[in-house]
Amino acid sequence: MREVEHAKTRIRQVVARSQIPEDPRHADNTLEWLLRFEPTADHALEIAALAHDIDRADEHTKIRRADYDTYDTFKAAHARHSAQILDSILTECRVPTRIAVEACRLVEIHEIGGDARADLVKDADSISYFDVNLPLYYQREGWTETKRRSSWGYERLSTHAKQALDNATYPQKVLNRLLQQVIHGDERQVDERGTEGSGVLGD
């Protein structure tokens, strides 16, 4: 559908302006994971996967963690703002109303899920954090914050999605140790695996 493809292009253009370097790759990677989980995903699901973090693209208007008492309230505000931005883009691109309404609904609740479709977006987003975001997040934030964020992301994964992390490895041994502590929920010593390659989680 021409309108949907136009909207996807526009979403990518907006996300590309983010000052968070992994955001453009995370958007496309979330879509890739969504299609792994649900190969027959419809237009609304695909749009939601691409646009779920679009709030972060504008430094002047994005929702900031420091303005909220808890991480969950911050994430909820971020999701609502992303849905509002997406609504404007879909209106501009003349995407059919039924698709636009559902895509915005999915983005608004993508942090918490709540139904089968929203859970798909949540799982794809969460897995993509481990696939794409985690190494750069660690460079910026260090061990303590990265472990907190990773634990939060892991706990919100469905049982099925957690299986995608069973054989995950990173080139940096410290990240393998962090991931294993997140998965096992404790501070025990684990084997540190470091592998070279282009994919973290594989196919």
Explain what you see.
- The chain has 203 residues and is mainly α.
- The protein has a domain at 2-142: Hypothetical protein af1432, CATH 1.10.3210.
- The protein is built from 8 helices and no strands.
- It has helices at 2-15, 23-37, 43-51, 71-92, 97-108, 116-155, 159-162, 173-184.
- Helix 2 runs antiparallel to helix 3 (43-51), helix 2 (23-37) crosses helix 6 and helix 6 (116-155) packs across helix 8 (173-184).
- It is globular, with a radius of gyration of 17 Å.
- Mean pLDDT is 92; it is low at 189-199.
What's a quick, concise take on this entry?
By secondary structure, this protein is mostly helical. The protein has eight helices and no strands. It has a domain at 2-142: Hypothetical protein af1432 (Orthogonal Bundle).
